[in-house]
Amino acid sequence: MSDYTLKILAVCGSGVVSSSMVVTRIKEILADNGIKKIQTFELTPAMLKSHLERDAADLVISTTRIEEDLGIPIINAVALLSGIGEDKFIEEFVSAAKQILKQKGE
Amino acid sequence: MDAILQWLNTIFTTFGSAVFVPVMLFVIAIALGTGTKKAFFSALYAGVGLVGFGFVINAYIPLIVPAVQNMVAVTGIQLEIVDIGWQATAVVAYATQAGMLFLGVGLLFQIVLFLVGWTNIFQPGDLWNNYSYMVWGSLIYVATKNMWLALACMLVLNLYSLLFSEILQKRWSKYYGYENCTVIQLHHVGAVPFAIGMNWIFNKLGLSKIRWSPAVIKERLGFLGEPVTLGLILGLVIGLLGNLDKLVTLAAWGNIMTIGISTAAVMAVFPRVAGLFAQAFTAITQAARERSVKSKSGREIYIGVNDAVGYGEPATLISGIILIPIMVLVATIIPGNKVLPLVDLIALPFMVTALVAIMNGNIFKVVVSGTVWFSMGLVVATRYSGLFTSVASQFGVELPSADALVTSFGILTKPIFGGLIFPAFLNESWLWIVVLLVVYFAAWFWLRKNKQQVHDYLERTADGDTPAEA
Questions:
Q1: Which of B54, B80, B300, B381 has the most CB atoms less than 10 A away?
Q2: What pLDDT does residue B74 have?
Q3: Pairwise CA distance, residues B350 & A47, whole Å
Q4: Helices A17-32 and A86-105 sit at what angle, rounded to 10 degrees?
Q5: Which of B109, B456, B111, B117 minimizes the C-alpha distance to B298?
Q6: How far is CA B66 from CA B72, B241, B393, in A?
């Protein structure tokens, strides 16, 4: 694996409660897949654009709907809250993370 | 049982909530089989959140409360009750004896109701928001010193929220596009009967034809949805109003600017602390869900999800943002209201989620009905601000003066739960309690028989009097 630190933005309505729950889970999921170097930020949808202007990120996971096109992948993480479709989310999320790391490693 | 409560109380007052809550969470996490490591971190985050909250709120309150008192004195605007926000309310609620009791009993109650099929909603999917029950329970306990009564109140509120949520579940799930998920929070589903009634009136008046376009409004008012901007504006306005009589002095401007920046800071920092606290619930929520939900397949079930799920949906966000300035203005003119909506204004896009689902995202309908609903709620919050203040001051909020009053605009403004159900227990009115229970069981049986028709009705009327055939 590369030395690259994966930057992930976790988004929810308040920028805290469900996003921090989701962050706890994705750290576990990534660690299970051998990805340990990650950095996460928890944000509200309103803060997304201005955050990305200041600091680039690789991936957005969100427990709420995001309408804007941010130029980076956005993955809906409600499955982590409800448990419905959780496996599918994990699969999609891990493969997106791996793909980003592969690109950055080159 | 009374002896146990007494004993728990002694332990509680000796160690305080920042020790007691983590221990409770650790025990619950272990019991649910999360493993020691996750249980330990859950517990630690809860303790860190509780202590961290004290740091923030007790730096802000000595600044904002006098500022609001100045505003009242200078302008005569009678809004002296400061809204300290749902995050502060949650942390206070978890720290109370009633909260501690409900942390265990409530979770068990909700799991059992689901497993025996009393409800088809798995409520512990959103364990964190149980603080809403704890708030009302702790008010009862402070007023009556009767923990049984407090517990009974919390459980009855819980039963009613499940009932309302079962009415809403299909509509919410469909509108927000999350299969088999629903909101269950007491502070949101209380609006369900009201929303259905209002929508019926709107449809009769033919108001479904009014369609506001979200994009334009978002462009104009979007800045209000950014916590730091809203905080700055509100702080500056309060500061300015409080210093109207001495605007020629430099000190006045120093004070105005400080209040502005500090309010922006609270809007930004409070959620961080709440986030630390919320992390404590991740492992427990997951473990409870994995244990209970898998064993019950074959019937239609709904998972209670965090209210943040609905937030970013355009009509929800826009309606909430439009309501921010409206509620500030309306608060000044409603007779009987003394609450100054402040920290929770940013939460308005959460607070409209039930209205939005039932009215199918019609922003006009949501804004009008939201204004009426929250206005009634403000009167309820005003009435119980004294009780809430004494709970808050016992559990971590230091008030600068004896006459200071606080509340939460998001959590206490509940016309049905706070205005009709809670007082039965507060006044220890047995007749009223019996009526509440009879109404509940009658409604429960009726809904069990007519659920399909109720869901069909909500689908049919969501978008107006024209039947939406799909």
A1: B381
A2: 92
A3: 17
A4: 70
A5: B117
A6: 10, 12, 16
Best CA proximity match to B20, nearest among B7, B33, B38, B37: B7
Q: Enumerate the β-bridge partners of residue B81.
A: B339, B405
> A59: helix, coil or strand?
strand
Q: Which residues contact B86 (CB under 8 A, 6 or more apart)?
A: B187, B343, B344, B347, B408, B410, B411
**Are the beta carbons of B302 and B181 closer than 8 angstroms?**
yes
Indicate the helix (H) or strand (E) that contains B423: helix B422-426
Burial label for B249, CB within 10 Å (0-12, 13-18, 19+), is exposed
Sheet containing strand A74-76, edge to edge, reads A38-43, A6-11, A59-62, A74-76
Q: Is A14 on the interface with B (CB under 8 A)?
A: yes
What is the separation of C-alpha B235 from the centre of its chain, rounded to a whole number of angstroms? Answer: 23
Identify the pLDDT of residue B468.
46
Q: What is the interface pTM, i.e. ipTM, of the complex?
A: 0.76
Distance from the B282 Cα atom to the nearest Cα atom in chain A, whole angstroms: 5
pTM of the model: 0.88
Tell which of A9, A24, A53 to mutate to test the B interface (max B CBs under 10 Å).
A24
Of A12, A24, A62, the CB nearest to B282: A24
Distance (Å) from the alpha carbon of B234 to chain A's nearest alpha carbon: 18
CB contact under 8 A, B275 and A20: yes
Q: Tokens for B88, please give them.
A: 């502060």
Say how many residues make up chain B. Answer: 470
| B123-178 pLDDT, tens digit each | 998 888 999 999 999 999 999 999 999 999 999 999 999 999 999 999 999 999 88
Confidence category of residue A2, pLDDT binned at 50, 70, 90: low
B72 vs B238: CA distance, rounded Å: 10
Question: Per the structure block, which two tokens stand in for B455?
Answer: 């869901």
Q: Band of the pLDDT at A13, cuts 50, 70, 90?
A: confident
φ, ψ for residue B312 (rounded to 5)? Answer: -80, -5
Amino acid identity, position A5: T
| Cβ–Cβ gap B271/A14 under 8 Å | yes
| CA neighbours closer than 13 Å in the CB half-sphere of residue A9 | 25
The CA distance from A8 to A11, in Å, is: 10
| Coil, strand or helix at A54 | helix
Residue A70 in contact with partner chain B when CB distance is under 8 A:
no
Partner-chain contact B311 A47, CB within 8 Å: no
pLDDT above 80 for B249: yes
DSSP state of B212: -
Would the CB atoms of A17 and B278 count as touching at under 8 Å?
yes
What confidence tier does B39 reach under pLDDT thresholds 50, 70, 90? Answer: very high
Q: Which residue of B has its CA nearest to A10?
A: B275
Q: Which residue of A has its CA nearest to B125?
A: A82
